[in-house]
């Protein structure tokens, strides 16, 4: 019995002696086995300051330890002005750099696959941040209160953006990758310098207030796979200059989702009128707003109690339509013009190999049919302009790419020529 107790005691002592905190070159580490985690200073007198370079390895008591982590609160409230993080680090703990107000730039190496909550919380001096390309989530409060942050790219592997992740920052450009499926509550609230919001179709769920008080936003594009627009999502977007389109997938719009909407028109694509949550102190849309809906659903919208104070109109009959584009040839290029200013173009192509040349005759006459549509926010898509091009005359015997055979690659080449992608 005594032997068992002694063995257990020695094991506990051994475990304890391996998990110790040491100071090496002014930084504190918790060493365990052959790994080291950079940890918080021990007192106000030993707070970290100035330019910090974290080594990939540290030596202590004649042994080498690999630095693989930065612990929670490690640098919080420190007057550090810069930090260099080695590629040996794979994780960074909660609030590790919280309230480091003198930190202006930071780069998280691609070796890091996980960061904790509030990593740069209230770093008011931070202007630029580069995140690891291998992050799959931006946790809650990551840049919350970084009031001077203007530049930060969201990595392409991220699937989740947490609550208040970019709250009250000055980011000017937002590109949410099409890997993101969830955006948390108030993730981009008070981002006044944003001018455009594009929620990719990968996003299927959002919290409330995500883009509340983004007063500089001029245009909003909403995911086609959202079914709800939660409370106050786009409230106080008073700078909107382009009419918003509600995707056909939306069935519910929360209280105040568009409170303060500055335009007098909006487009609804759902064939079944979405439920609009009414609030005691806020309006989701201003009374009298013109809502353009599918013609087949016009009466359903008019009969719905939620839409009694709005003017319901038909998309097909009442929404202005873009002018049909004009296609002209100049040399070996085709150019597009449209009487409606500020349009963008979409194209649809098809190949027809046979055509009727008489009442009882069919001829083989391969043709490329290119349909060009003009589009503009707040207007119906135009009727198509049609360009027909005989494949056989596009180049010698239809061999557009010059490889000696005529096949689908020649069609692709021809389309690219028309789109000015190839010469």
How would you characterize the overall build of this protein?
This protein has helices at 2-18, 298-303, 315-318, 391-394, 408-418, and strands at 20-24, 27-32, 35-38, 49-53, 57-60, 63-70, 79-84, 91-92, 105-107, 114-115, 128-130, 137-138, 151-152, 160-161, 182-183, 196-198, 205-206, 219-221, 228-229, 245-246, 252-253, 265-268, 275-276, 290-293, 311-314, 326-330, 333-337, 344-358, 361-375, 385-390. By secondary structure, the chain is mainly beta. The strands form nine sheets. Strands 1, 2, 3, 5, 6, 8 and 10 form a seven-stranded mixed beta sheet that branches. The chain is globular and about 95 Å long. Residues 1-17 have low confidence and may be disordered.
Query: Got a strand count?
Result: 30
Low-confidence parts:
1-17
Biggest beta sheet attributes: 7 strands, mixed
Number of helices: 5
**Content of β-strand:** 25-35%
Helical percent range? under 10%
Report the end-to-end length measured between terminal Cα atoms.
88 Å
Average pLDDT rating = 88
Rg measurement, Å: 30 Å
Which word captures the global form? globular
Structural class: mainly beta
What is the topology?
Blueprint: H1 2-18, E1 20-24, E2 27-32, E3 35-38, E4 49-53, E5 57-60, E6 63-70, E7 79-84, E8 91-92, E9 105-107, E10 114-115, E11 128-130, E12 137-138, E13 151-152, E14 160-161, E15 182-183, E16 196-198, E17 205-206, E18 219-221, E19 228-229, E20 245-246, E21 252-253, E22 265-268, E23 275-276, E24 290-293, H2 298-303, E25 311-314, H3 315-318, E26 326-330, E27 333-337, E28 344-358, E29 361-375, E30 385-390, H4 391-394, H5 408-418
Parallel strand pairs: 3-6, 4-7, 6-8, 8-10, 9-11, 11-13, 12-14, 14-15, 15-17, 16-18, 19-21, 20-22, 21-23, 22-24, 24-25
Antiparallel strand pairs: 1-2, 2-3, 5-6, 26-27, 28-29, 29-30
């Amino acid at each position: 019995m005594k032997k068992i107790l002694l063995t257990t005691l020695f094991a506990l002592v051994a475990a304890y002696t391996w998990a110790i905190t040491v100071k090496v070159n002014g930084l504190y580490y918790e060493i365990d086995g052959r790994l080291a985690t950079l940890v918080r200073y021990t007192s106000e007198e030993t707070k970290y300051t100035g330019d910090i370079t974290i080594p990939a390895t540290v030596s202590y008591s004649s042994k080498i330890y690999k630095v693989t982590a930065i612990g929670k609160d490690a640098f919080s409230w420190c007057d550090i002005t810069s930090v260099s993080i080695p590629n040996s680090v794979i994780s960074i703990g909660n609030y590790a750099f919280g309230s480091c107000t003198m930190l202006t730039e930071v780069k998280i190496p691609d070796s890091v696959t996980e960061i904790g909550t509030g990593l740069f919380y209230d770093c008011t001096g931070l202007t630029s941040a580069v995140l690891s390309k291998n992050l799959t989530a931006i946790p809650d409060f990551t840049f919350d209160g970084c009031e001077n942050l203007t530049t930060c790219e969201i990595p392409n592997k991220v699937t989740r953006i947490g609550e208040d992740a970019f709250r009250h920052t000055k980011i000017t450009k937002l590109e949410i990758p099409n890997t993101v499926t969830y955006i948390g509550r108030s993730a981009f609230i008070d981002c006044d310098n944003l001018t455009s919001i594009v929620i990719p179709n990968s996003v299927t769920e959002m919290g409330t207030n995500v883009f509340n008080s983004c007063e500089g936003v001029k245009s909003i594009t909403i995911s086609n796979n959202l079914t709800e627009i939660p409370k106050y999502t786009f409230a106080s977007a008073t700078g909107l200059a382009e009419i918003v389109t509600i995707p056909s997938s939306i069935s519910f719009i929360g209280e105040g989702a568009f409170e303060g909407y500055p335009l007098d028109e909006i487009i609804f694509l759902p064939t079944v009128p979405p439920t609009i949550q009414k609030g005691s102190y806020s309006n989701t849309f201003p009374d009298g707003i013109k809502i353009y809906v599918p013609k087949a659903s016009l009466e359903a919208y008019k009969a719905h109690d939620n839409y009694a104070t709005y003017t319901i109109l038909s998309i097909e009959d009442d929404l202005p339509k873009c002018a049909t584009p004009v296609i002209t040839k100049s040399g070996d290029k085709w150019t597009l013009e449209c009487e409606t200013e500020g349009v963008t173009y979409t194209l649809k192509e098809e190949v027809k190999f046979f055509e009727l040349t008489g009442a009882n005759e069919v001829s083989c006459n391969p043709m490329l049919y290119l349909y060009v549509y003009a589009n503009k926010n707040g207007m119906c898509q135009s009727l198509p302009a049609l360009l027909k091009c005989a494949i056989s005359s596009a180049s010698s015997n239809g061999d557009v790419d010059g490889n000696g055979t005529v096949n689908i690659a020649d069609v692709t080449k021809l389309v690219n020529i028309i789109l000015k992608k190839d010469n």
